[in-house]
Design brief:
The chain has 293 residues and is of the alpha+beta class. The chain has two domains: 15-51; 77-292, Protocatechuate 3,4-Dioxygenase, subunit A (Sandwich), CATH 2.60.130. Helices cover 26% and strands 22% of the residues. The protein has helices at 15-22, 29-49, 53-68, 76-83, 86-93, 205-212, 269-275, and strands at residues 132-141, 151-155, 177-181, 187-193, 198-199, 218-219, 222-228, 232-233, 235-241, 260-261, 263-266, 281-285, 288-292. Bound molecules: benzoic acid (BEZ) and fe (iii) ion. Fe (iii) ion (FE) binds at residues 108, 157, 222, 224.
């Protein structure tokens, strides 16, 4: 280390400068840019908050248990990024969708298993018991045309607010999930149960963080989608149930008004028969509009 000001950076050459200089040899210029920014901001954070050794040890212990809480079916780091609003910030920074295209929102930690391929119209609620519901729409290009053969990957929690991977042995694998291929007009439709609001898992370190900061863990009722089509930018998004609790206080800050859909009540035995659901049911119509690549 050279120069003065080694401790708090009050000298003309700081430990921050030294670390930044040490990154000059990175072959990848983007890696160098990212690490330089990270070091500068981390050091500024430590100076600004006068971070103590004990506090940093506590933070390291927190990150360690966060890593240990990750399994093949649980991603605690994604949840940490989500509750800190970083996932949503990245969605906004990287958003390449023009006006009229479906907005993106967070992926969340439960898209860890491949959705089973299903026929159009299939019921993804393998357990039953929830309020029956049909979701239908078209996959369209922002240029206006239908996107036949587009892929619509869907996943949602059951009527009690749990994903299949959270309840092995209780829910069958693939419950609440489906991979659909849009028809020749870009249409997709499937049956499910009306999702309900649910708390994100709170039995790990992220739950502790929420409790320590007096925050609730709830997400408004939603269904997740990833829509993809040749020549278009895929969109990762949700549809939120209009009127759901927590639309204005989502634990992961992921609600965008354009993603809220009416799950309209339908009492029509004929159309219930056509869709293969019990009458009465609810029907959400929502088009997925993709940006050309
Ligand atoms: C979800 O919607 O599946 C989710 C998103 C962020 C954190 C936890 C769950
Ligand atoms: Fe979810």
């Amino acid at each position: 280390m050279t120069g003065g000001g080694k401790g708090d950076g009050t000298g003309d050459r700081t430990v921050t400068d030294e670390v930044v200089d040490s990154l000059r040899g990175a072959d990848d210029p983007r890696l160098r840019e990212l690490l330089t920014g990270l070091v500068r901001h981390l050091h500024a954070f430590a100076r600004e908050t006068r971070l103590t050794q004990r506090e940093w040890e506590r933070a390291i212990a927190f990150l360690t248990v966060t890593g240990k809480a990750c399994t093949d079916t649980r991603q605690e780091f994604i949840m940490l990024s989500d509750v800190l609003g970083l996932s949503m910030l990245l969605e906004m920074i990287n958003d390449r969708h023009g006006p009229g295209a479906t907005e993106s929102t967070v992926l969340g930690p439960f898209h860890m298993t491949e959705s089973p391929g299903r026929e159009l119209g299939a019921d993804i609620d393998l357990v039953g018991g929830g309020e029956p519901c049909v979701v239908s729409g078209r996959v369209l290009s922002r240029d206006g045309g239908a996107l036949p053969g587009a892929t619509v990957d869907v996943w949602q929690a059951d009527g009690h607010g749990f994903y299949d991977v959270q309840q092995p042995g209780v829910q069958p694998p693939g419950n609440g999930r489906g991979l659909f291929t849009a028809d020749g007009d870009g249409r997709f439709w499937f049956c499910t149960c009306v999702p309900s609001p649910y708390p994100i898992p709170t039995d790990g370190p992220v739950g502790g963080l929420l409790r320590a900061t007096g925050r609730h863990p709830y997400r408004p009722a939603h269904i997740h989608f990833i829509a993809s089509a040749a020549g278009h930018i895929p969109v990762t998004t949700h549809i939120f149930v209009a009127g759901s609790e927590y639309l204005d206080s989502d634990a992961v800050f992921a609600v965008k008004p354009g993603l809220i859909a009416d799950f309209a009540p339908v009492d029509d035995p004929e159309s219930a028969r056509e869709f293969g659901v019990a009458n009465p049911f609810r029907h959400a119509r929502f088009d997925l509009v993709l940006e050309p690549a």
